[in-house]
Amino acid sequence: MNPVLELGTVALGLYLAGWLAQRWGLASIVGYIALGLAFGPGGPLPVYAPSATIGLFGDLGLLMLLFFMGLEFSPARFAEGGRAIVVAGTIDLANFAVGFAAGLLLGFGWLAGLFLGGITYISSSGVIAKLLTERRLLAYPEAERTLGVLVYEDLAMIAILGGLGLLTAGGGWQDFLGVALVLLAFGALLRWGRRALERLLSREGEAFVLLAIALIALGAMGAHRLGFPEAVAAFLLGMMLAESRHKERLEATLVPWRDVAAAVFFLDFALSVDLAAAFAVAPVALALASATALVNLGSGYLAGRVTGLSHRAAVGHGLMLVPRGEFSLVIVGLAAGVTLLPAEVRTALTGITSVYVLTLVVAGSFVFVAYDRVNERLARWLLSPAARRRLRERERQLAATRLDA
Questions:
Q1: The CATH fold of domain 51-369
Q2: pTM of the model
Q3: Which residues contact 32 (CB under 8 A, 6 or more apart)?
């Protein structure tokens, strides 16, 4: 297909898929993945196929997503939550055990279990942040705790993606040397290079956009050549600029690029899914999604209560962390390149992850749409019988007071 014609059909398809998803109260990512599954090579109407054009925009979308996640993080913001974020984030690590155990139970082996653990551990910062904003929930006390845990997860993913990336590359000593060089370069830039970056980005118009994209792409691919995961390199670059005076300009200018390229990234992932294989592992993926959601609710509630949230807010914290998304797709993409894993295991991981992510994004979207109602009912259901009686008595007293007034 002519590249320009292909770009037009992809843009139209993504627009319609995102529009329909939003009309149904779902996150746009659901529409993008569904588009690839339905109209990809294994779908009922094979309109789209993997190509150089889609792959290019998909790679850029991944780097943009991770860059913007880093851009939202700063050491000062993380320090504000202090001990509460560290405690809540550490308890949240229970979700890693879910995937690792599932990998062993399914007979995939410990290596695939590590990948599956990463897939089940990380919540979707992009989906959750978007839903919190769309549903106007940012003022809720549990939202602050949730955002803090997302930052913790993003930091944990530097180590997880770095380690899994080394496994992808074979794990030789040269790779460890390359990782060390990238981390040293990042530390040096963080300590002495900020002023140079500030001056470099003091451009206007298209010069600013071109320079920003060049920094993201070249920095990520330079790190990749040294054996360091390019996604993490983009995250670190964003984190380096999080307290820059150009942060707002970067967000305002690059958000459209990020959203468009990220949409193609999700489509590109869906096009690589073997739909027959996905259907074959759908029961496993649904069981894994259910287990993750339950453990997430439990660990989120425990983390909320331990760090001072009310009963209702702690339940809400667990609910807010349910959606999985971009990082899970990144991890399964790494798994696809690990030759130590049998081909059938890699295929199964891709199918499981596609159904798993789609299930939890859809479920999370519905939860956010009716958040107050779901949170209230679940919080009431989780109360002890004595606490329920006390709550009903308070409600009756409040109703009687209102009638007297």
A1: Na+/H+ antiporter like fold (1.20.1530)
A2: 0.72
A3: 14, 17, 18, 21, 263, 266, 267, 270
